[in-house]
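Tip: read the tokens left to right.
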């Protein structure tokens, strides 16, 4: 029973993760064309890019735009798998083996997206001279960045 719950939680986490990565990547590359920016990493990278020389800003834009196409393609592929997962979850008869197979497939695709984002950041770092790289990443990744804190018991009593 715990194993099934763990797999279900893992798949739900994957769903949220994929949509977050897609949203973050799309917003960063599209320069906020779809409404106000969220608070967080996107704003940090946007702000960081502004500390660079015009030449290096253009170089970074070129890298991001080149890789956005690949990120979006991979994201669409993951979304298609997540749609299949949804179909399994709402089917009249639950098929655990199909869910496990699709979950593994979605995780593999999610990892590929993360690797591409990581490779993009490495390419950005390699493109910038040391002084610009330091300025950029100091702005983009301040030392106080922390994950949000959630109280697992929050609102539990109100249910």
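Filled-in amino acids:
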């Amino acid at each position: 029973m715990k194993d099934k719950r763990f797999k279900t939680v893992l798949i739900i986490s994957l769903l949220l993760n994929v949509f977050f990565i897609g949203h973050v990547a799309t917003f960063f590359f599209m320069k906020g064309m779809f409404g106000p920016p969220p608070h967080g990493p996107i704003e940090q990278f946007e702000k960081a890019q502004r500390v660079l020389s015009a030449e290096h800003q253009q170089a970074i834009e070129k890298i991001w735009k080149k890789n956005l196409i690949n990120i979006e393609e991979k994201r669409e592929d993951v979304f298609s798998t997540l749609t299949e997962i949804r179909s399994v979850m709402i089917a009249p008869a639950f098929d655990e083996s199909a869910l496990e197979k699709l979950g593994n497939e979605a995780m593999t695709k999610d990892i590929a997206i993360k690797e591409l984002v990581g490779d993009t950041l490495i390419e950005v770092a390699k493109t910038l001279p040391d002084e610009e790289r330091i300025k950029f990443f100091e702005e983009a990744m301040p030392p106080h960045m922390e994950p949000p804190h959630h109280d697992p018991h929050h609102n539990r009593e109100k249910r």
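Confidence is low (pLDDT under 50) at residues 31-38. The longest helix spans residues 54-90.
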